[in-house]
Amino acid sequence: MSGIVFLKDICKSYRSGDEEVQVLKNVNLTVEKGEFVSVLGPSGSGKTTLMNIIGCLDVPTSGKYILHGKDISDMDEVELAGIRNREIGFVFQNFFLLPRLTALQNVELPLIYSNVPPKERRKRAEEMLCRVGLADKMHNLPNQLSGGQQQRVAIARALVTEPSIILADEPTGALDQKTGAGIIEYFEKLNEEGKTIIMITHDVNVAKHAGRTVNILDGRLTEGEIIQ
Amino acid sequence: MIIECIRMSFVNIIKNKLRSVLTMLGVIIGVASIIALISIVQGATNNISNEVIKLGGNKVFVNVFGTALKQGLTETDAERIAAIDNIAGVSPTISGKATVVYGSKVLKDITVEGKNEVYFNADPELVSSGRSINILDLESKNQVAVIGSNIARELFFGINPIGEKIIINSLTYTVIGTLRESAGFSLSSTNDTVIIPYTTALRSLGVKNISTLDAYLKDTNLADETILEIKGILNQAFNYNEDAFKIYNMGDIIASFQSIMSMMSLLLAGIAAISLVVGGIGIMNMMLVSVTERTTEIGLRKALGATPFAIRLQFIVEAIMLSLTGGIIGLVAGALLAYLLARIIGIDVSVSVSTNLLALGFSATVGIVFGYMPAGKASRLNPIDALRSA
Lengths: 228, 390
Description:
heterodimer, A: alpha/beta, six-stranded mixed beta sheet, four-stranded antiparallel beta sheet, 10 strands, B: alpha+beta, 2 domains, 13 helices, 58% helix, elongated
């Protein structure tokens, strides 16, 4: 057992009526610290379910998941919330910024749930927004920002708790080609700084920027080559 | 985290101004009606009980019906009652109807009461101008009268009545004083009464017996014992005929009156509380809509590490803020309404601190009770489903 993310024989099935649908079939995946891994697969391949399990939003039906040395497999809801807060930085396709909060308040949000005192919270959020290059947009509401800027706010929000992994779900899906490329570039930069990134995408051109690509198809994971 | 919850709730309430205000309206109306009703009833209670207290909490009231042989109390009976240890004084009343004449003005069927100095001593402010009947008037059976405010107005419009002569049942009396105007609905209104010394009344009114007697107690705690003593004397006077008289302890009457009024105000508040429940249902409805609308937000917060408790807290805080804001507005509106109505009716209002706290406590409880279910629904949302719904 090694790596920051360690998945062993993960199975996940849902009941749909009388039928049992197996979405993930014996998935094994190890991600080392500092890696940039993309999970590539078409829709319906089970990649979202895999992301949910890696992101501790869902628990596997069977198998073992160890994140940063902690066994996640049978944690309860409250413990999982704590793990998500400390260990995982989510970046979503639709950014999911709260529309009524400023960029700064959005970045502060995860720190509220780890009980960081207000002053420090603000300081850390400000630093993080400076790092993503939005020092002058801190007090803007999300709808006053471009898509790329919104996604950078979301990235700042993901980074602010200094999580073990950044988990990005189609981070360029809602952006145009050029802006998307900028975001991917930013991920590469973060990776160079030592961040562990797992990116889920259906886009080969996006996936190839990662250091390593794994393919998912019909709930099975294969390493290496890109399947077109 | 509470502070964050309050801030977020504030942002959300402001964002949905119209909806929030409409939702709050239920609570506003509920609280306002509770405050207004309780304040007015309490004000009226105070007014009326003040009147009743004026009748005397330290007074035992003896009403004599008499028997065939003896129609009322004699002076000797009154003196025996006055001699009881715990009695500070007795004021007998001899009552009759008479025609009162001043110059060309004639008032028929006027209540003329014979009383003594004890009656006037019990309430020093009873006489508003002139003097009261004193012991000398009683001893020399003076033909003097103290007249009620309506009588004074009708007979002596524009004239100072003091020193004027009036004729009661063909006898001339000198007006020595006027009585303070008492509230129209007062049980003890003396506005239409003429009071003369009771010794004079025994001679002139054609009434030979004392029909009512007020005994003033020194110590109200000993009221029961004293009443037993009075009863003993009256039993002797009327040969143990219990139907010949009745004794009322004004203290008891006041206490039972006050308990009736407080029960009534509770009853009214209970009715008003129903509207608060309706307001609460409104809040629950809005919170349920809010949870549905903010599914994505809830999912995101959960993904960022919010525990179910944190989500539940946020929605409950929001419900409490809605109901409490409504409560505060309702409080102000209710107090204003109470003052306005009191002005119109002409009574004092009493908006007590305890009523206000009660209403605020009620509205906060409404927030907790009716926010609990929607908040629980929010806290149980599966983050995956919540995020997918976007």
